[in-house]
Please model this.
Amino acid sequence: MDTTSVRTLIVGAGITGLATAAALGERGDTDYLVLEGDAEIGGYCKTVKKEGFVWDYSGHFFHFKHPEIEAWLRERMPKQRILDVEKRSFIEYKGTQIDFPFQKNIHQLPKDELIDCLYDLYFARAPRELLGKHAPPAPEASASAAESFETMLYARFGRSIAEKFLIPYNEKLYACDLGSLDKDAMGRFFPHADLTDIIRNMKVADNATYNARFTYPEGGAIEYVKAIASAVRPGGVALSETVLSIDLDAKVARTNKRDIRFDRLVSSAPFNRLLATAKVPHDASAYSWNKVLVFNLGFDRKGQKDVHWVYFPDREVVFYRVGFYDNIFDTDRLSLYVEIGFARDAVVDVEATRARVLADLEKTGVTKGHRLIAEHNVVMDPAYVHITQRSIFEHARLAQELRARGVYPVGRYGGWTYCSIEDNIVEARALVASFA
Model:
C-alpha cells in the first residue's frame, strides 16, 4: 500500500474534525489530513433536500454562548440567510400540551395532578428522618441506581414529576434503565428547577433553557459545516477513506487506501471504536449507547403553528420527540423530524416503525388527514452515549493513556459525553492551542 506522512491526522470530517483542521490552519500549520469514511463531510450534520423540503439527519440547532465563534461562522457564509428563532416547545400530556420544561409548569396540569406533584416535590426535598410518619413511601428505584440519573430525578423532583414525565420520556430517549446512568449524565443541558423556581413560575413564566434561542441557516445545518470547511486547506479532507487499524507504537494508521504515518492523531470517532482500532486493551462492556431512527416527513399542507418541537412521554406513542421545520422556515407545508430511540442491539424495522409513526402522528393530532408527499429516514448509531460512573472512570483513564501517546479523542463521541455543537468547536480550538 502507498504510505503518506502527515504531522496531524484527524479522523472524522464532522464539526469537531473540521474545526480542528481549521484551527490548525489559522495558526499556520497546514501539515494535516482529515479522513472521512463517508462520501460527504458533516457527520450527523448532513442536510437532505426533497420536493422543496429541507431536513437534517436530525434536529441540529445552534445555541451560541461565544459571540466570536458565531461571528466567525457567519463571515464564511455571507450568502446564507440565518434564522434567529425564539424556541417554543411543549409536552404532549394526556391529550393537551403544557409548556416545557415539565417540572416548572406543573401548574398547567389538572388540579389533582398538580397537588400530587407539589406534595411529592415538597416531601422529596425534606430530610426523611425529620418527616417521620409523614414521609411518603420511597420510590422503588432500580437496584443499580445508587447515585444515578434515576435517583437524582426522584430526589430532586419527587415521585409524581419523575413518573409523569422525566422518567418515561428519558427512558424512551435513552432506551435503557435510567438507574444505570450517572446522575449528571445530561450535565448543564438538564433543566433543573428548585421549589422556589417552580412556585414563581406559576405567576411569572420563565421557561428559559440553554437553547431558549437558536439560529438555523436557511440551507440547513450543512451550511455551518461548509462554513468551517471553507477554512480547511484545499485537499485537506480525504473522503470515503476509513481507518482500519492504528499502530500506536509505529504511529501508523492503515486505511482502506493506504498507510499514513503521523506525529499526532485527533479522533472524533466513538471512543470504543478508537480503542478497538488502536488495539488498546479495554472492557467493551463499559461503553453503551442507544441508536435513534429519524424520519423526516413532508406533508401537503400546514399543521400546528407556533411550535418548534414537542416531547412525548407516553409510552404508547412510539416517538419521543417531533420537530417542526416548517415553523422555523415559516413555510406553508408541514415538515417534521420524528425521533424514535432504540437499544443499541435492537433490530430496527424501518417499515414497521414508519407505519407506527404515521398512525401515532394522527392519534396525537400532529397530522389530521395530511397527505405525505416526501420522506427520508436515517438510523444514527450511536446516537446518545450512556454516561455511567464506569464509563466516566474508564474514559478518563484510557484517554489519558492515549494522550500520552499522541492520540487525542475529542467531540461528543470521542469524549463519550453530552455536549453542544458549539462545545465541539471550542474543544477543537483549545486542543490545537495546547499543541507545541
About this structure: The longest strand covers residues 288-299. The two ends are 31 Å apart (CA to CA).
